[in-house]
Specification:
With 467 residues, the chain is α+β, with helices and mostly antiparallel strands. Helix content is 33%, strand content 22%. β17, α9 and β18 form a beta-alpha-beta unit.
């Protein structure tokens, strides 16, 4: 079945455990509170419990690595407990209560992280999607609202050939109190160079100016060369007429030291445009090489060449198709490259062309970024530093691509934190859509409610992370 939401169990709905994420070697104070279910603990009674590490093995079988501590906890007047403990290894732990026969009664999971993750909050986002400004199905502001409703913390509007739709979305919500960060961007399609095709479908995530609008194309045809449509802050390189740009690419191609089997002009254009994205302050993302557009979108020889020469900042390892050849082969290639010493950051994106649930691929992938702030520059820096994991939600059971350490932590979060987080986002996204499409009275009502709840997701983070 297609993915709809991150699922949880009754334990998470019946008990509130906070904070859920602790820092290694920092004394922690954890609260366990009943949320109104039938009581399984008696106020005033003392219970035997264990604090046990998930990864150490059973202590009687693996005494060298087992990490269990026996404790006694007294139930408070609310039917809950306070647990004080200092965790010493990065991994998941259970606070396990035992019945009168010494058998497991219930587990409450928490996670301990190393110091480098302290202060880095998990932020889920999408780095590649489309609106009606190119070939998508909804307006930029509705796409943003629908994906906030789905639980995203950040996203980009990356329309084909066009940067200005992302500015529309940012401007629309600039005075709307909500927790969604909207990042400027575009999907870059450079023109042919004297008849040689050089269209890689590159993603410019967060750049301060448009790469598409540096020369002729749909954006310039529609909006002209005014910098207010071409840049976030009104500053960008001068526009180059098409012939001037083509001659520049031919000059660069003469200097490109591509091997046999790799076309020099496309390689030169690829290198140039990814360099321009970096100059703009953006994240240069290499997307969907095994998308089957008649044949694979990018030849394997070309793919190997740009990996070996480190031309891109991040690889869209998971993208917007549900057949195995795309995401399966891309994930395998990423791990093979890692084995060869090429350790580049990865992201997952929907490449969505409709934000409605009727779109089979509307929620197919996303990215979890561990960042100190939900802000464009901080997100880009965190991804470049490899604090990201790609989330595969092709079906109802999620899978992860990335470094094992972050994948283990992310698995805990997607089961124990994000179901609660996403519940908060649903109402916020619904109200954002009401602002975008409602009557004047409905818009006024939505803005009033958002002014009251617009910071609650951030407060929710601060409650569950002991940073």
């Amino acid at each position: 079945m297609p993915f709809t939401e991150f699922k949880t169990d009754d334990r998470l709905l019946n008990y509130d455990i906070f904070p859920k994420v602790l820092v290694k070697n920092k004394p922690a104070r954890i609260r366990i509170r009943s949320l109104g279910a039938r009581p399984i603990f008696e106020s005033g009674k003392t219970y035997d419990a264990l604090i046990c590490a998930l990864e150490g093995g059973k202590p009687y079988d693996y005494p060298a690595s087992g990490d269990f501590k026996e404790i006694k906890l007294t139930c408070d007047d609310e039917g809950g407990f306070t647990v004080e403990h200092t965790f010493t290894k990065e991994q998941m732990y259970f606070i396990r209560f035992l019945d009168d026969n010494g058998k497991k009664k219930i587990d409450f999971p928490v996670y301990c992280v190393d110091e480098d993750l302290a202060g880095r909050y998990p932020l889920r986002g999408d780095l590649h999607m489309h609106t009606i400004r190119s070939d998508g199905s909804q307006t930029p502001e509705v796409v943003c609202a629908n994906y906030r409703k789905h639980g995203l913390d950040f996203m980009v509007v990356s329309d084909h050939n066009r940067y200005y739709p992302s500015l529309e979305a940012i401007d629309f919500y600039k005075d709307v109190p909500c927790g969604l960060t909207i990042v400027p961007g575009e999907e870059v399609h450079m023109p042919d160079v004297k008849g040689v095709e050089c269209d890689f479908h590159t993603v410019n995530f967060g750049g301060e100016y448009s790469i598409n609008a540096l020369t002729d194309g749909p954006a310039v045809n529609e909006k002209g060369t005014d910098k207010k449509y071409r840049s976030l802050n009104g500053e960008c390189p001068d526009y180059m007429p098409l012939e001037e740009w083509q001659n520049k690419m031919l000059e660069l191609a003469e200097k490109e030291n591509a091997p046999d089997g790799v076309d020099r002009i496309p390689a030169a254009v690829f290198k140039w445009l990814y360099g321009e994205i970096r100059k703009s302050g953006g994240l240069a993302i290499f997307p969907h090489p095994t998308w089957i557009s008649d044949v694979y979108h990018v030849p394997f020889a070309f793919w190997n060449y740009v990996v070996e020469n480190k031309y891109f900042d991040a690889f869209e390892v998971l993208g917007g198709e549900n057949y195995y050849e795309q995401n399966g082969f891309q994930a395998l290639k990423y791990y093979e490259d890692r084995a060869l010493g090429y350790d580049y950051p990865v992201v997952g994106s929907t490449d969505s062309h409709s934000s409605n649930p009727s779109n089979r691929n509307a929620f197919i992938c996303s990215t979890l970024v561990f960042s100190a702030e939900n802000e464009r520059k901080a997100l880009i820096e965190a991804i470049k530093e490899r604090y990201s994991v790609a989330i595969d939600t092709i079906d109802e059971n999620f899978r992860l691509v990335g470094h094992l350490r972050l994948a283990k932590y992310s698995t805990f979060l997607l089961k124990e934190y994000f179901p609660l987080h996403d519940e908060l986002c649903k109402e916020e996204g619904r109200l954002m859509k009401q602002v975008a499409t409602g009557t004047p009275e409905e818009k006024e009502e939505a803005l009033k409610v958002l002014s009251l709840i617009g910071d609650r997701v951030q407060k929710h983070r601060e409650k569950y992370f002991d940073f």
